[in-house]
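--- STAGE predict ---
source: upstream dedup step, 1 unique chain passed
mode: sequence only
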Amino acid sequence: MNHAGKAFHKTMNKKAAKKARSKPRKPVVQKKENVQELVELLQVHQIELKHQNQELKIVEEELEVSRNKYVNLFDFSPIPLFVLDLDGSIKGVNLCASKVLGFDRNKLMGKHFIAYIPIAERDVYKSFMSIVFKSPESQSCELNVMNKDKRVFHVRLEAREIADTLESERTCQVALIDLTK
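--- STAGE serialize ---
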């Protein structure tokens, strides 16, 4: 680039820098009444937001109470309960279910429920789970389940897809009823 070109770019850069440093223009308010109207409107919105925040806090507290009730009902149910996803992975398990299978709950999470079904009955289980996720009604089937000690229980599985969840993952709740006795 020649000397004249360099000088031109230098001048342009200075002008651009000067524009960038200049203070932004403040909006000009034409009438004092307009400012007062805006202030009153902002005050109304502020009051509305305070009320909405109070309502949200109340709803959050109610939701927390409801969630705690559900967790207690699920965890302390005398019936073994599992929450399974479409692949049969255990997403939730209550205390009774972990006791029946002989594992801590955290050891069961993420495991496939089919691992506790004898090999000869796995096709029955797969077919059953397929029906559960295709039907809006509760489904049941009888089969055997093995615990940690390889002890076999004859059980009835009662299952239903959990349709009222906000989660995108499809799950079902399965109750395990021991028919061995």
